[in-house]
Amino acid sequence: MRAVVQRVSKASVSIDNRLFSSIGSGLLVLAGIEDADNEHDVEWLSAKITQLRIFDDNSGVMNLSALDTNSEIMVVSQFTLHAKTKKGSRPSYIRAARPEKALPLYNLFVERLSELSKKPVATGRFGAMMKIELTNDGPVTLIIDTKEKE
Fold this sequence. Notes:
Elements (H helix, E strand, L loop, with lengths): L1 E14 L2 E6 L2 E7 L6 H13 L3 E2 L5 E3 L1 H4 L2 E6 L21 H19 L4 E2 L7 E15 L5
Parallel strand pairs: 3-6, 6-7
Antiparallel strand pairs: 1-2, 1-3, 1-8, 4-5
């Protein structure tokens, strides 16, 4: 799994020009699932995201996690995170999981994040054309890949 994690002061998803979901201060997670992913990737990534110390403490140092700050979380599925751009100008998405594999892992990821954060997780709609608005806070943006674990 690959995730782009953004610390936001607010984020929202609209579908068909209608607000679908929104959060205040917290994390917007764009999640890409590839064919090689499984439940272990979901578990590792969920724990990593909820424990990332990327929120400021009273001294202004990034020392607190989403759990520490009771932050909201939004997850949006984004297969394009697995784009390959080595050849030519048209990205290849061959490594991205097909919906029949990706959707159950996406749902498990959202469920696991909700369990770990002890609150509902906002989402987009899997497979829908969405408009995402966000105010990046910092900016703080991290890329996490369960296959690289950097």
